[in-house]
Design brief:
Elements (H helix, E strand, L loop, with lengths): L1 E5 L3 H9 L3 E5 L3 H9 L4 E2 L8 E6 L6 H8 L3 E7 L5 H10 L4 E7 L9 E8 L2 H12 L3 E4 L2 H25 L10 H14 L3 H10 L3 H12 L3 H22 L2
Parallel strand pairs: 1-2, 1-4, 2-3, 4-5, 5-6, 7-8
Antiparallel strand pairs: 6-7
Helix pairs in contact: 3-4, 6-7, 6-9
Length: 252
């Protein structure tokens, strides 16, 4: 299988390392593509190449997806998929520009240094190439699960935009204290904050601009900060009820 990976960053390299294929990279930064190719048995092709490939994978920023689909759909002879992190827009663009191909949107719910993990997928038009890619991801230890574009993009508002807002707000507000003062809660928050801040700020900015979720967290924090004792108790109980309901729903 000839595979073109458009976008030679961490996620594009993860795809190349996971799927058994004859891989070529292209990237807006030719040096990045050359570096990715040199570290693997792969090659570099120029952006907007007119070469044909069995499969094209788009590992580009979410905001660049519509243009990338239009540009690279002619290069794919059998299948196209993306790993951008949003699903509705890529699938709509692929339906417009790659309707005859196998089409899917994957979202690895982890940074590549923390593999394996869960991979969400929406398959718009299945076929042997996409089945082989799903199987390769599973063989690498990942859990691949089906969703819908609406369910996925709504979930990202909570698990990414809201979660990142809460964690980064803590990291910005927290003062340095001696290690002996750490509580089980603060220690876990420190660990999570360290995980979030080790990433690429551009990726996190894309998430915040693509998905709603920051504003509700800010509003909730303001309600807590200004609450009297009675209101705080009500908010605490509401938070507990929400978490209990979420837990029950996840385990149904």
């Amino acid at each position: 299988m000839k595979l073109l990976v458009v976008g030679a960053g961490e996620m594009g390299r993860w795809v190349a390392d996971t799927v058994e294929a004859d891989v070529a990279f292209c990237d807006a930064d030719s040096a990045v593509a050359a570096d990715a190719a040199a570290a693997r048995q792969a090659r570099r092709v120029p952006p907007a190449t007119d070469e044909s490939f069995d499969v094209v994978c788009l590992a580009v920023p979410m905001s660049a997806i519509p243009e990338a689909v239009e540009t690279y759909a002619p290069c794919a002879t059998a299948a196209m998929f993306d790993v951008s992190g949003v699903m509705a827009d890529p699938l709509a663009a692929m339906a417009d520009h790659a309707s005859s191909l196998e089409r899917a949107s994957f979202h690895p719910l982890f940074a590549p240094p923390r593999v394996p993990g869960n991979v969400a997928v929406v398959t718009a038009n299945d076929g042997p190439r996409l089945e082989a890619i799903c199987e390769a991801m599973r063989e690498a230890g990942n859990t691949v699960f089906e969703t819908t574009p609406a369910e996925h993009d709504r979930a990202m508002e909570t698990v990414q935009a809201s979660a990142h807002t809460a964690v980064l707000a803590y990291a910005l507000a927290a003062e340095s204290v001696r290690e002996e003062f750490a509580t089980p809660v603060s220690a876990q928050l420190e660990d999570v904050a360290a995980t979030v801040t080790e990433g690429d700020p551009g990726v996190y900015a894309e998430i915040q601009s693509t998905f709603d979720g920051a504003k509700p967290v800010a509003e909730a924090a303001e309600r807590i900060a200004t609450a009297d004792d009675e209101t705080f108790a009500e908010l605490y109980e509401q938070a507990k009820t929400n978490m209990d309901a979420n837990s029950r729903e996840r385990h149904q």
